[in-house]
Amino acid sequence: MNNQNSRRDYPLDRDDEEYPPGPPANPQRQQSAPTTVYDPAGYTVKQPSPGKRDAIMRCAQEGERKYEEYIGIKAQKSREVTRGPPKIIGGRPLSQTELQEKWRLTEREGKRNQLLAEYEKKQRRAQYQRDEKEKEERQIKGKKQKARELALKQQRDERDRDLAHQQVMREQRMCQFYQPSMSSQNQSSCKLSRAEQIEKQKIEEQEFIKQQKIAEMAKRKRRIDYKSEEKRKEETEIQDKKMRARELANKQASEQKELHIAQTEEMRQRRLQRYDKHYN
User: Fold this and answer.
1) Is 276 inside any structural domain?
2) What are the boundaries of the region Disordered (predicted)?
């Protein structure tokens, strides 16, 4: 009997009892979230207000976002932005040991990639330095080669001039030696002409090079003078503009000062008139 009474007092202990229905729905409050919920046993449970519930949801979303950022920061060491290793492989969740192993492998891969990147950077820097050194050596070698070629050319020119001069002197001596026994026609056809022509040509070339250098120097001087004159004109224009702006500013300041003095004097006169009118 006691068991029956106790089962009758607690309808939840009996399987054949129906759960009591909840309160009827209010159509006027369908749009707003209910603050009270009826559980199947007929007991009321207080729900938080909408503002409080929104605050709780925001806090939960903020916590999830921070957790995802933490995972992303840890996984970023592997040179790719991820949200960590997948927690489900083959349809089953990973255990804590498997997760730790996955993290360890991920971090090791990230360190390996970092070391490889540093090694590649060092290799590129060393290759760049080697290329720059080879470029400088080639430039120095080219300058030395050009200087050597120029010196050899000058030596050849000097030797050719000396040989030409010696040939001229030899032919002059020969002409002078054979001159008494030569007729006037043979004297005019002396072989001195070819050497003289070579010497004259070399002298003309040297004179032409000298005149060309003088012309280039004069042209360079005219260009420098023109640039300096243009610069001087620009500076003069800038100074004139500054002077005109300064004069205009001084003129405006003086006009403002005079206007202020006139307005002050006019206000003073008005005050005096009001004073005289009030007391006289």
Assistant:
1) no
2) 1-54, 77-97, 110-163, 217-280
Is residue 128 included in any domain, yes or no?
Answer: yes
Q: Please tell me the distance from the alpha carbon of residue 135 to that of residue 141, in angstroms, as a whole number.
A: 10
Task: Report d(CA 268, CA 263) in Å as an integer.
Answer: 9
Which residues fall within 8 angstroms of residue 56, CB to CB, at 6 or more apart? 48
Q: What is the amino acid identity at position 176?
A: Q
- 197 and 238 housed in the same domain: no
Mean predicted lDDT score pLDDT of the chain: 74
Catalogue the E-assigned strands of 30-126: 36-38, 44-46, 88-89, 92-93
When pLDDT is averaged across residues 176-202 and rounded to a whole number, the result is 57
118 phi, psi to nearest 5 deg: -65, -40
The answer to whether residue 243 sits within a structural domain is: yes
177 & 221 share domain: no
Identify the weakest region by mean pLDDT among 8-17, 48-57, 221-230, 263-272: 8-17
Residue 21 within a domain: no
Supply the pTM of this predicted model.
0.27
Contact, 94 vs 102, CB < 8 A? yes
Give the residue, 91 or 120, on which the prediction is more confident. 120
CA-only gyration radius of the chain, Å: 55
Q: For the chain, first and last CA: distance in Å?
A: 120
In whole angstroms, give the CA distance from residue 205 to residue 199.
Answer: 10
